[in-house]
Design goal:
By secondary structure, the chain is an alpha/beta fold. It has 7 helices and 6 strands; from the N terminus they run βαβββαααβαβαα. It has a 4-stranded parallel beta sheet. A two-stranded antiparallel sheet has the order 3-4.
Length: 210
């Protein structure tokens, strides 16, 4: 099976884990330059007013081209508390919220200094909770998308395909619609953070990812 090459992501979307579930292994890109307004610092969830983003603030350094591995999280504002309250408010009535919230909140409350550490810890935890078997490593060098080492049959490069401003290809979406807390009001909202799937479907989540 091919290796999935993925960017770091904060509480990644369903398509991110669908790519992992369909691969034997995954590599997380930690050598690329940081990109703003992407899933690297944003998670898309369902709220009482529709789709909403939870964003992780980062410290601004000199210049814009910095490796993602050097990006530090800004805790001057207590965004962890805000994110916890938002998830509890929007998913408190979801069938499996109480089963998984403590595991996810404990990672947030660990308050790691680096963005890559926070995102990787959450990704590994969600892999386990979703029931996905996929070995995970990190890159040691950056290769552009057209490099044959990341564009051949042995590697599927999803680093720039999974993006909040791009339409997710149908083949990367979950296998069918699942129950969502606000579905009666807004209909089914596709490709939200995988916590949306997990809180709503629990142990059955894996069936929507393959």
């Amino acid at each position: 099976m091919a290796t999935a090459l993925l960017s770091i992501a904060y509480l990644p979307p369903v398509s991110y884990f669908a790519a992992m579930a369909k691969s034997g292994s995954a590599l997380i890109e930690v050598c690329e330059n940081f990109q703003k307004q992407s899933y690297r610092t944003r998670a898309r969830i369902a709220s009482a007013s529709g789709m909403e983003f939870l964003s992780v603030p980062v410290l601004k350094g000199e210049g814009h081209k910095r490796p993602v591995s050097e990006i530090e999280i800004d805790y001057k504002r207590d965004w962890v508390l805000l994110h916890r309250r938002a998830l509890a408010s929007y998913y408190g009535s979801a069938p499996f919220f109480l089963y998984y919230k403590d595991d996810i909140f404990s990672v947030l409350e660990s308050r790691p200094r680096m963005l890559v550490d926070l995102n990787t810890s959450l990704t590994v935890l969600l892999l386990e909770l979703l029931g996905i078997r996929c070995s995970v490593g990190v890159t040691c060098r950056y290769f552009p998308p057209d490099d044959p080492r990341v564009s051949g049959p042995d590697v599927h490069d999803f680093r720039y395909a999974i993006h909040p401003k791009k339409t997710t290809p149908p083949g990367m979406l979950c296998g069918g619609e699942y129950y969502q807390v606000f579905s009666e009001k807004y209909g089914f909202l596709p490709d939200l953070s995988a916590v949306d799937l997990l809180f709503n479907e629990g142990p059955n989540s894996i069936s929507f990812l393959k």
